[in-house]
Amino acid sequence: MQPFTRLDAKVAPLPLANIDTDQIIPKQFLKTVEREGLGKGLFYDLRFDGEGRERPDFVLNQAAYKGAGVLVAGDNFGCGSSREHAPWALMDFGIRCVVSTSFADIFYNNCFQNGLLPVVLPAEQVQALMDEAKGGNHLVTVDLAAQTLVSPSGQTFRFEIDPVRKEKMLKGLDSIGETLQAAAAIDTYEMKRALAQPWLEDA
Questions:
Q1: What separation in angstroms does the CA of 108 have from each of 32, 96, 169?
Q2: What is the pLDDT of residue 195?
Q3: Which of 24, 55, 74, 186 has its CA 20 to 30 A from that of 80?
Q4: Is the sign of the CA dihedral 103, 153, 65, 45 positive or negative?
Q5: pLDDT of 127-166, one tens digit each?
Q6: What backbone phi and psi angles, to 5 degrees, belong to 33?
């Protein structure tokens, strides 16, 4: 997993509440377990019309927000069914951080397993960031070590994050990576067990 330390990127405003995982990545794009290529399906029904043409009014289709790395959205982002493809699609599209007042629990947990940083801020700060993102300057800085987000105008918003999750994000560790840190101890244990209880090796 790619570590998340500091991100300097454009922020795109998506002032919609209750964006569910089917809106983030519709079901027809769930036929793969590969993470690459899912960006094409991100917000598909919002980005494209029935003929597959880009909707010019959708924020991520607008030239000013092309290449955005931060998305600021309404309440309860990532609700609906559990699908790890949702953070995969966001990251494949280039988005490394989503800001909201709240996230659905399963989506929130999936973000940390895939290197996507979910930032929770109070409603008034999310609205301030949303308003600034609609202006002419779209650049923000997200510093995970300092737990700060600096808005386009220079306002600094501090966010809270579980220290264990923070450390794993900084180091780029998902559950597998965390386990592999103990690989030497695991190997030693398995060798000792094989010598002491060889019959278990045939089980």
A1: 22, 13, 13
A2: 63
A3: 55
A4: positive
A5: 999 999 998 889 999 999 999 999 999 999 999 999 999 9
A6: -110, 10
Q: What is the pLDDT of residues 105-128, one digit of tens each?
A: 999 999 999 999 999 999 999 999
- Can you read off the two tokens belonging to residue 106? 């399963």
1 lies in some domain: no
pTM over 0.90: no
Q: Provide mean pLDDT across the span 26-41.
A: 84
What is the C-alpha separation between 45 and 202, in angstroms, rounded? Answer: 53
To which H or E segment does residue 183 belong? helix 183-196
123 and 59 housed in the same domain: yes
117 membership: H or E segment, kind and range: strand 117-120
Q: Are residues 96 and 180 in the same domain?
A: no
Examine the domain organization and report whether 182 and 87 are in the same domain.
Answer: no
Residues 6+ apart with CB under 8 A from 59: 12, 13, 14, 65
